[in-house]
Amino acid sequence: MNKTFSLRFAVLLWLLGSWLASPAQAADAMSPQALHAPWDELLHKYVTPDGMVDYQGLLDEEDKLLDYLMAVRKTAPNEQTWAPADIQAFWINVYNASTVYMVLQYYPVSSVNDIRMKGRSYSPWEFAGVTVGGQDYSLNQIEREKLSARFHDPRIHFALVQGASSGPRLLNEAYNGAHLQQQLEQQTRSFINDPARNMLGSQQASISSLFSFYAAEFGEQAQVLEFLNRYARVPLAAATPISYLPFSWNLNDRHTQAEIQALRK
């Protein structure tokens, strides 16, 4: 047998063994901060301060994003050694990175609603295409089971990014357990006071449809107004009527629609 081939085959077996290491071993071998460092680097480089994504630029480093997701594939949060905030940050990062990677597989695309998985038989939110610690999840499963059901924190809905221009802005840094509370507060306050997403006035509140999508968590009008008043720069009266703004699923791309269309030709 050719010696060069033998060496390459040995290296391949070693790499395969590394990828098949148990989730617990992988989680113990790397701190949460170190795990998310590659994702953090990509966010700093390709996401603008106002949360728009340079998908075209990211395509040039798609392999780095894939490497990060492959690291996640063999990592499950260690319930014994990870703080709850680290676990919460982990799942937010996985959700957002998986969403961005999904968009890259179909880019250039004008809207995330144009994406259909497996020959249009699955929506991108229901397709079980995210693997963590050997377990397959859909994006909706991560949102519902790993975040909402466990942490009961509605602020996560301003951190999870659907790739839509009316949705929350993608934070240009990875979520970090040590700073998670500040990051969630920042994202929530920024979203609520953004006039492109919520129009808050003393006589009328026209708010994001996100509050309607997750009505079970935000509650009735009185509870929604109470939540808004925790963050709104202009206080809302208890009797302020609420309406919901149309939700645009156009891609949160820093490039214009005309530029995206030109890429598709």
TrEMBL record:
Keyword field: Signal
Protein's UniProt keywords contain Signal: yes
Signal sequence bounds: 1-26
UniProt protein name: DUF547 domain-containing protein
Residue ranges occupied by any DUF547 domain in the UniProt entry: 83-192
UniProt-listed InterPro entries: DUF547 (IPR006869)
Keyword match Isomerase: no
One family name in Pfam for this protein: DUF547
